[in-house]
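Journal club prep — side note

Before the paper discussion, L.F. wants everyone to see what a predicted structure for a comparable chain looks like in token form. Sequence:
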Amino acid sequence: MTTFDGGDTISRKKTLLVLIGAVAVLFAASVAYSMLSDNDPTRHHTGLGEAIDISPDDEQLAFSYFDQGRESLHVGNLEDGSTTQLTSPEAENHSHPTFTPDGEGLFYIATVEDRIQTLRYLPERGADPVELTDSDMHVFEAVMSPDGETFYYIGMPAEDLLAREGEKENFRDLYRVGADGTKHEQLTDKDALDMNSLNISEDGSTLHFIDGMRGAALRTYDIETGEEKPFEGDPLPGEVFNVKLSPDGNLAAYTTMVNEEEGGTYIYELFLMDMGSGDTQQVTDYGASVTSPAFFYDEDRIAFLAQPNWPGAPASYELMTVDHDGEEMGPLAMDLPESEGGFQLGAVLDRMVNTATLTILYLLLFGLSIAYGNFYDKAYMPVIISAVLALIAFISSFIATSSDPWAGVFLFVLSIWLLGCSVALLIFAFIYKRMVSDYNYDEKHRGSP
């Protein structure tokens, strides 16, 4: 037992109890905020959205932009860099703007309640949007037929998207809908776990997409016959993202990992492939991550988004262009919108409440408890409690996996985190007891002959 003088011991105990209580309140509040707050990293973000498009006349760039978490559509003039805001959503976000084949209108994704993505169509600037799908269907991405009469999209029922793992009945398929919002039709019944990179041929007869269920294979869908088959030769490498066909269909731009064997942070660069010969060349050397390639129509250039803060979240993008030979890469000048500004408490809390903060508060809480328990020769009791919590989380992870795999993964990661903290606390308890013991010994024998 610690052997300070009585008054000094009582004072130290009171101080420790106050500190333990204060840290416990801070820790509990931080945990509650982490669990109850929206886990979307863009909820307070200001900056570019994740997709861009070039108009058929090569004069305009469509993009989305976050202003303190609210995402809206904008169009920029590629000659002078001026921009115009097209939408001002209040209760939803607008993203992935794409020009119509005639360049007069756009279609885009509107994220509504429960993060369901719906498809909207602006026939012309300033017109009322046509709601092509409602909140019963989640749309991942879409293309428009060259004649402007039909939209094709990858989607899945919203109820299945929101269902827990193991309870989903339907997954991704191809759908189409008329430009007036009528004639909905499901084209496939694949229930694919992953379909992406939807493109349409120049003549509007064929859809191209990546089917993740088949090892990221490029596949084609004949719109007239409904026949689906692998793309002839399938020249794409095994794992590609953001596949975009050139307007004439002769080239394909895509991103893929370039440092598979080096370890560390994965780097994703832009590649360009000849669809006929399969010849491929790397056209960017950005050294981080690039996404959303968009071909110019009359120039041998590609616009894309680069993420200098990769793999941070939220992503902070910058506009870039590169020629087809990869020799001239540089920023794309654009007068991006200015934020309305204003203090955001939520943004401050988001920066303060993170894994590092929770770890520090947890170690501080149990470290102070070790110091308090040492007065009663129970310095290791907080360590035991922490270890028991780790064990409970570990066992619970296996139990939860049977009903909710994601909950099981969370609990398993939590158990590893608790175990690491417990080891650190064990080391601290050992050192603290030793230091207090040495201090008491010195005090006891001070002045002795």
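L.F.'s comment for the group: The radius of gyration is 29 Å. Keep this in mind when we get to the figures.
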